Known about the structure:
By secondary structure, the protein is α/β, with parallel strands linked by helices. 29% of the residues lie in helices and 23% in strands. The protein has one domain (3-197): Rossmann fold (3-Layer(aba) Sandwich). The strands form two sheets. Strands 1, 2, 3, 4, 5, 6, 7, 8, 9 and 12 form a ten-stranded mixed β-sheet that branches. Strands 10-11 form a two-stranded antiparallel sheet. The two termini are 27 Å apart.
Amino acid sequence: MSYAIIGFGKIGQALAHAFARKNIDVTVAGRRPPEALQVQAQAIGPTVVARSLRDALEADTIILAVPFGEHPEVAKALPSWKGKTLIDAMNTLVSPEELDGLPSSAFVAKAFAGARLVKGFNHLIAATLATDPAAGGGHRVVFLSSDDEDAIAPVAALAKQLGFAPVKLGKLNEGGALVQARDGVWGQLIFQDLFKKAQ
Length: 199
């Protein structure tokens, strides 16, 4: 399984730290050319490699960590997203009208036709996401939701591999609504730094 993070701002870099901590290879790409990201990528760890957007999109699993308004441009980079697992780590405070009344991730899914979309890794602030998720005899929780039941399993496996405790919240319009903004208000589980005791 190959992984890429699209967007190398605070959240993208925090996620890169999570991969580096476990020595898992990950490609990173952003608006700037790969040469401009390489120094930051190398500073995070040897398993983090900056590449062009085109090269990064060859990964099997892609974490979308760009500002919400930029996702349509990323979506245009591939003619089809069939066979790709897309993890939506973005947040937005745009109005429901601008999202056609859909949960934000369901709106994103329309742009990435064919992708298996999972909402995840978006409810923690970057500084928290970048730190070791193992603490206090437990593991930091990450919430996952998707309208594709089969898509959650590999993302949950990745979360565990990164040291997190995945908690499935169900479909995007149910559990997914708990970790997004609606009517300018954050969902109940957003920014909740929770731990699950090791078993």
